[in-house]
What we know:
single chain; mainly beta; Jelly Rolls; seven-stranded antiparallel β-sheet; six-stranded antiparallel β-sheet; 24 strands; elongated
Amino acid sequence: MPSTYKTPNFALNQWLGTDTFARTDFNADNLIIDSALKRLSEEVKAVDPLASNLYNLILQQYYDGKYTGYKKALMFDGFMNFSNIASLSQGIYIETASSNKFLTFDNVGYSGYSTADPENLNASNVRTWVPEYCTLASSITICCFTQYSNATITVTITDDSGTVVGTGTKTGGLPGLQNFVTIPFNSPVYFTAKRNYTIAVTCTADLTIRRATNSSVLYFSLACSPTLKNSGSCLSKPADIGNDYSRAIGWVRYSGGSVGLGLEVGGSSLDFSLAGTYPAYTVDGTLACSEAAFELEVPAGLSGESAVRLALDKNGESNMRVYDYGVLFI
């Protein structure tokens, strides 16, 4: 027979010493427990998709040209361009050729680079260049001549954010007839694949610069070497999202290798804990990938702007891709 007393939440049997009981009473209790555990399991599974769906919606707005910048308590990047990136480790770049843009490693690099040979036609002193691969350059060579052999040539390299990433100078020894002139950089200049760079040549005297064959822009070559890496990081630009949060949860969608997530707040460096890895798809639903979920308990008392730090490691694989990440601050 059923018990004299029942539990307050699920009405499970609680027998007294004087109660009698039957197998059917136990079976009924087990069905109640099984049903409750099933509902709990479904609710737990719904947490990640719910957060991920919000993340997808925000990213979709971003991809559709409805970007509204950093929102309160949210930071994300779908790597459509370099605009949200403060720094990238050498050897990592954004692959822009695919409809699904992603961070990846350069496995090729330049061991030297040159445009087509120069021809006897003048060129502008400024040109743009988008390198196919990542490279570290020590000098640049142009083809030119001047009547003032003791003049000074300066080469300035600027990236697509307007930041000067390198300069080089050469004074004296300039040719009076068309010839090659090598200008050493003041320090090695790193070029990230698929970024747009501007190369500008100036001189303290009149200088005639030759252009590359079948081209309207100046000839140049680089003394450079590849920057092949197996691990690296990406740091977002800092954002002022306030400091009234105590917890952060994040996702990274990727394929190959492994990823880590960190937070930089006002000079403090915090590392997220990996909560789990799940099968996923890219935001447009076309590519299967993995989604790593992260969580972080944020200590009180931090102040200043926040930046997301993303760690990439091939882990012995030939390469990897990171499609996007998102961090919600709670």
